[in-house]
Specification:
about 425 residues; Jelly Rolls; 2 domains; nine-stranded antiparallel beta sheet; 1 helix; about 0% helix
């Protein structure tokens, strides 16, 4: 294993506005103390998956230590970093307010914190009108050409495992379909896909019997979001008028947001609510932790969303930086300086289409004319051409210059002030 890092952060200790580092020293061995801790800016509350395995809200400026792991069990915490998002569904955490059931006010309550959901029992007649929860008069404009994502939690109730959603968009049509959360966790057929293209459906386990179902779609025409409905279905490919007589399904946390993936749940009451981005960085004295002419940057990440984002950035200007990143189909490391002569543009990446959900350990080693990128114990790419400018003075976690947010979970990050050997890179990144 390599020598001790100059900076190490394993998300564990924090307070409002701060995420504490375990190690933060200069190359001369000076302990930086509080000046090495990361600043956290998010001017709104946000939710996380806590150590008890339920969703809870945290205050503005508090870093989100999210305990969600594969299979929905609570594991070791990871730092959840997301961009800004807005939930367009009103009263998303309380179906006793402004939601109807069979023409009457619903008496149920969606307990978001406990993810208990609200149980809906299909009528004996199989009538959808008296079986689904409906939130009407949303009156939110949706734009042609824009991509939206609908999501909700579904709890398996008894032996029944099939539920569905419907969205009414005036001027476009109805969207929706069924989700089967048993066995294969498969998503079902889509019905009435009028006015929508590029539809992607997902089912994730969020607990012993709780699943998050979501679908992403792009509108081909502008319309007005009028209503959202949720209820049990007879089969995964049911259309809107077909429910399973006497069956039950529990729902919670409905959300519709602009974007291509479902982000963390945003509770709403009488108006749409925006969650601000998680901006995490440190500047100033911490520049001594950075290998300015040679070094190594490392991160361990838990990837759930295959979207573009920056994991760890050493920043001087928007044209001079070193970083680890993910894109829709690969992981990468880069050393960029387009202002000097000669310019340096070193992009080391995994093969196109290689990125899937899961745990990854990444390390990028850099030194003049000597660069290497390792992922999960394997050498991905090397380069023997390029300069390292130095004078990096900002470290950003989960973003690049307050943009390109990671939109996922970071389990650890570290810096070394030397270019680690290839053997050390292999050891450092082996799962």
């Amino acid at each position: 294993m390599p020598a001790s890092p100059s900076l190490l952060i394993v998300p564990a200790r924090f307070k409002t506005g701060k995420l504490y580092t375990q190690i933060a020293t200069t190359s001369a061995g000076l302990v930086l103390g509080s000046s090495g801790d990361f600043n956290v800016t998010r001017a709104t509350t946000a939710t996380r998956f806590n150590s008890a395995g339920v969703i809870e809200s945290v205050a503005s400026g508090v870093p989100r230590l999210d305990y969600y792991t594969s299979g929905g069990t609570a594991g070791c915490p990871a730092l959840l970093v997301e961009p800004s998002a807005q939930n367009l569904v009103l009263n998303s955490d309380n179906t006793a307010t402004s939601w109807t059931l069979g023409g009457n006010t619903a008496s149920g309550y969606v307990d978001v914190i406990g993810v208990s959901g609200n149980t809906i029992t299909a009528s004996a007649s199989g009538s959808i009108a008296s079986t689904v929860f409906v939130r009407r008069v949303l009156n939110t404009a949706l734009a042609s050409g824009s991509t939206y994502t609908v999501s909700f939690l579904m709890r398996q109730t008894g032996a029944h495992t099939i539920g569905g959603y419907w969205i009414g968009i005036v001027g476009v049509g109805d969207l929706g379909g069924g989700f089967d959360v048993s066995g294969s966790f498969s998503s079902g057929a889509i019905y009435s896909p009028a006015g929508a293209i590029n539809r992607i459906r997902r089912v994730e386990r969020w607990g012993t019997d709780v699943y998050r179902c979501s679908e992403t779609f792009t509108l081909t025409a502008s319309g007005t979001l009028d209503r959202i409905l949720m209820g049990p279905l007879a089969t995964v490919s049911s259309v809107v008028a077909t429910v399973a007589s006497g069956t039950q399904m529990s729902f919670a946390a409905p959300q519709i947001e602009l974007g291509a993936i479902p982000t963390s749940f945003i509770p709403t009451t009488t108006a749409a609510v925006t969650r601000n981005a998680d901006v995490i960085s440190v500047t100033g004295a911490v520049s001594g932790c950075i290998g300015q002419t040679e070094g190594t940057i490392y991160a361990e990440v838990d990837i759930r969303n295959l979207t573009d984002g920056r994991i760890l950035t050493l920043f001087k200007t928007s044209a001079q930086y070193i970083l680890l990143s993910k894109s829709t189909n690969r992981l990468g490391g880069a050393i960029i300086d387009t202002t000097s002569s000669p310019t340096t543009v070193v992009n080391l990446q995994t093969a196109s289409g290689s990125l899937t959900s899961g745990i990854y350990k990444l390390a990028l080693a850099y030194k003049q004319n000597d660069f290497a990128f390792y992922v999960n114990g394997t050498s991905v790419a090397t380069s023997n051409s390029g300069n390292v400018i130095g004078d990096y003075n900002i470290i950003r976690i989960g973003n690049f210059d307050t943009s390109l947010f990671f939109n996922d979970r970071i389990r650890a990050a570290a810096l070394y002030t030397t270019r680690l050997t290839n053997a050390e890179l292999q050891s450092l990144t082996t799962l």
